[in-house]
Give the backbone structure.
Amino acid sequence: MIKIAKEFRWEMGHRLPFHDGLCTNLHGHSYKLLVELNGSVDEHGILVDYYDIKKMVGPIVDELDHSIIVNKADTELIDVLIKLKSRHVIIDSDTTAENICRYFLEKIKNAGLPERVNKIKVRVFETENAYAEEEVVL
């Protein structure tokens, strides 16, 4: 079994209305995503070509870049974003690093990976030194 990884970066805003601290405010981060794939290589010694990973994950990152990610329950913020004609992505959960990690994991799982990939791990850095990580065995 072999593991390969690719890194992605983007800028994105969010807020956590339930939070007791500063994160209740609309604010942004310079995010980093590390995608790791495990599995067996093909006859050429390749698990997944890095270009193919970029083709799968890049559009997800591009949709989030310079946008606001917002929980579908945060209708107040959604209304403001629509009024301002501001880029936003609505998800089904609070916009914590943990839930953003799960968001990526689900999207990547359904992106058409080769069958030889048997595990996906994603790590979402919300700041330079704070991240959430989750993996799934396929």
